[in-house]
Amino acid sequence: MEKLKNYIYGEWVEGTGIGIPLYNAVTGEQVAVSDTEGLNFEQALDFGRTVGYKNLSSMTFYDRGEMLKKVALYLLERKKKYYDLSYKTGATHVDSWVDIEGGFGTFFTYSGLAKRMLPNTPFWVDGDTQKISANGTHLGTHILTPSEGVSVQINAYNFPVWGMLEKLSTSLLAGVPSIVKPSPFGSYLTNAVFQDMIESGVLPEGAVQLVCGEPGNILDYVQDGDSVLFTGSATTGRKLKALPSVSGNAVRFNMEADSLNCSILGLDAKPGTPEFDLFIKEVRNEMTTKAGQKCTAIRRIIVPEHLIGDVQNALSKALDQTKIGNPLSRETRMGSLVGKQQYEEVLRKVNILKTETELVYDGKHELIDADYEKGSFMSPKLFLNDKPFEKNISHDVEAFGPVSTLMPYKDAEEAAALAKRGKGSLVGSIVSHDDQFVAETSWKMASQHGRIYVLNRDNAKESTGHGSPLPTLMHGGPGRAGGGEEMGGLNGLHFFLQKTAIQGSPDILTAITKIYQQGAEKKFADKHPFQKYFEDVEVGDSLETAGRTVTDADIVNFSNVSWDHFYAHTDATSLTGTIFDKTVAHGYFILSAAAGLFVSGKKGPVIANYGLENCSFFKPVYAGDTITVYLTAKEKINRGVKGRNIPSGVVKWLVEVINQRDEVVCVATILTLVAKKSPFIDLNLKGIQKSLGGLTENTQSNWGKMSPQQMIEHLEHGVLVSLGEPEASKCFTPEEQLEKWQDSLYNHRKMPKDFPAPFLAEDDTLLELRHKNLDAAKESFMETLKRFSIYYKENPQAEHMNFVFGKLNKEMWELMHRKHFTHHFEQFGLI
């Protein structure tokens, strides 16, 4: 039987022991063996701390985000084999989708967050700068850097893929290497996904390692700077947290444990209401999805006392209709537990629950294409705790399977009290259309819950479900749930980052943070900052504008244009008792006038105004005052763009408006989209003519079969097609892919060298030569290019067909020619 290999210190290593046999949860057949015996865990951790940390921490947050996206795309292309393995764990197709593609989705989400919100630096400035001296010569702020260590993640058996990827999404993005230790049961699925992550070649050496089997003494070697992320039982988690190596070395420890989550049916949700039906459906789903093997599953069903019978009957019918069996059958809606060992453990807990509460539903389902003896199947079981304030077993014992307990309550106070008796839960839900009931119950139970999910007719169609943790929301809970926090958007990264206070002068803080601090030296130059591409803008680039004297007419005209007739701007007789001496200029006029002073009217790399932050007005501006503006590049934010957007970044500009007395009257931060430099040549006739000067009949191509003259005539043919001479007869790209191809014209990715032109013959024969020699071809090409420029000035709305990209307008043709010319000029070494 195949042994699962471990991936440590950059190598695939097989254990030297007998190992743990892993079985198909549906058929009972052995699938693989997991074995970690003989592994050098101390060496593995050291490899992560040294090689892995060096490689990951030196990358920027932005680049790590791009790394996550590339890995997720690579895995997504190979998802079918993961589903085939997932079925062997007893998971249905829907269960597998949550585990597999839910895991990939977490990577995609964090990649997007990084590219939108995190800096293109290896550190992250957290919070605003604090002025800690009277004159502003001494400032303070905080930076976040990757904790210098390795993260050991110990995962449960229920989500072999998502469990690994949701932890890696934050640790890798933070720049901290990880050692993944999945539960042996289902680890063959984790192993398959991990193999492909390594095969992708995207992750730097040492970024991730994999231990498939028992963890042995791996935690004996953790030290200061390391971290442990544990998902599993609260009992095991507490033991690990108390290890001398963990507690004695201040190792960061995050625990996400099992919890007795509840769902509350509102007092208003009587039979016949949408909420009653939604409640039954939600509870049924949470009992049967993953066969109840979810840390977020509903274990306690809290129902108005007069509706206990109605809920019991409706839920029993819903459970009766749930088809159980082989996940490969299309009829199956609930699979098996992950193995016989887990089956026996759930059965043991069921028997404990029976000692104090009544088993009111015990499904007698016939299995689809499976049998109870070979597989690890268990029918759903529903208990009734008729006195939930006296019988505590329902609040203490969790059967980690398709098992839940009904319990009655009288009012919102009791509902919240019962919810909290679970002593800390990952999630609690409320199904109600009564806003007051929901509000009162939710804030009272919030102290014992990591997440509260409210469901009713208004959000049902788009709701994500009681049991679904989302990357942008915190996953964790207090007390019994472990007290940990995972994901939660960018907050999930803080666990892996060291927060450090930085103090110094404005120049020092600017140098450290790469964010301009007020009072730091400004860099003045003849070139207007708005005429610089994103790559050329430097933090500190500044512009001092001319002055503008504000007049009474300015104030009156702005009132008329804006319709802002606030008395302080228009009525001098109403100023008694105010802070103003006379009618004052509008704050937004000052900001607009400032923009008029600093904006460059000439077309350049600045694409658009992207936003405004932290605008403050400090002094009134009256008619007769003269304002001057200092514009300074404050911060640069790299930005990933999709679709038909020009590749660009965001530049934050500090705007300081000064009056004639050198008093600051307004400070704001404006954001602009600034284009990045294109790697493609401009359609500049002189520049292209100059490049072609180096092309001779003897110039050798770097790839492909074209001669220099064939290349020039090929380019000319493309320009003629863009003029409709001749009009291309068809587009060879399938309609469903056309939008994607057209979008690609806007990005900065170069054309592939091995792209087969669809309009050429199958034997790769090139178009026949039209000109007598290369010089004649060059001359004709330049004349055609001139005609292209004139044609689209005279016909700006014209569109013509392209063989690959479909019908293109002026902008798209220009982008296509720039890419195409660059491709072939590089082919012959002309650039």
Automatic annotation (TrEMBL):
Where the record annotates domain Aldehyde dehydrogenase, the positions are: 12-499
Which residues are in the MaoC-like domain? 539-639
Keywords in alphabetical order: Oxidoreductase
List the Pfam families hit by this protein, alphabetically: Aldedh, DUF1569, MaoC_dehydratas
Q: Kindly give the InterPro entries that the UniProt entry links to this protein.
A: Ald_DH/histidinol_DH, Ald_DH_C, Ald_DH_N, Aldehyde_DH_dom, DUF1569, HotDog_dom_sf, MaoC-like_dom, PaaN-DH
Keyword Oxidoreductase set for record: yes
For region Disordered, the annotated ranges are: 460-484
Give TM regions. none
The identity of this protein, by name, is Phenylacetic acid degradation bifunctional protein PaaZ
Q: Which gene encodes it?
A: paaZ
